[in-house]
Amino acid sequence: xxxVTQNPRYLITVTGKxxxxxxxxxxxxxxxxxxxxxxxxxxxxxxxxxxxxxxxKGDVPEGYKVxxxxxRNFPLILESPSPNQTSLYFxxxxxxxxxxxxxxxxxxxxxxx
Amino acid sequence: xxxxEQHPSTLSVQEGDxxxxxxxxxxxxxxxxxxxxxxxxKRPQLIIDIRSNVGEKKDQRIAVTLxxxxxxFSLHITETQPEDSAVYFCAATRGTGTASKLxxxxxxxLQVTL
Lengths: 113, 114
Known about the structure:
heterodimer, A: mainly beta, seven-stranded mixed sheet, about 0% helix, globular, B: mainly beta, six-stranded mixed sheet, five-stranded antiparallel sheet, 11 strands
């Protein structure tokens, strides 16, 4: 089954404790991206990747890191989480090349205390 | 960069009525406009999209219209049903193969009441 898999679904952590949210897709998609969803603000892009070893900042990249060492994986790293990073995070992928349909993961609800 | 505004933020309609959600965009070069539906606790999913060379597109009870001159596009849902209750996001981007630069609106929570 074609899918984008995110883990974990829920995560509670404390300020400053490094964490990683994993994202994997099995559709051989070139494009992958991370969004955060906050009430009243919609979906805001954090980082995106157009292919292996190619990443770029989205609209709200501060406090986040990403890597794209393999085509299928695009982890989101919070080196020193802060309470303002409490949010619902979605990973998404797209094949690109005239097909912009985004396939979203199931989301990760992060709470930073 | 692109800025997408979406209205209303909440919308309540009775079952069987029509619902309309409107979005405006700022970048005149934008040429692809998708709509995503997010049911409660679920991931967003594409329901319909339109490109700038088309003024209207329909898929059963759902239609999207685009006015390039005014830089706005709308989602129309006819004969609404309870399963249409969800948050709807519009989005815009320029070029092809550019999902990486998709800008979303802030969402509309649609509630269909019996």
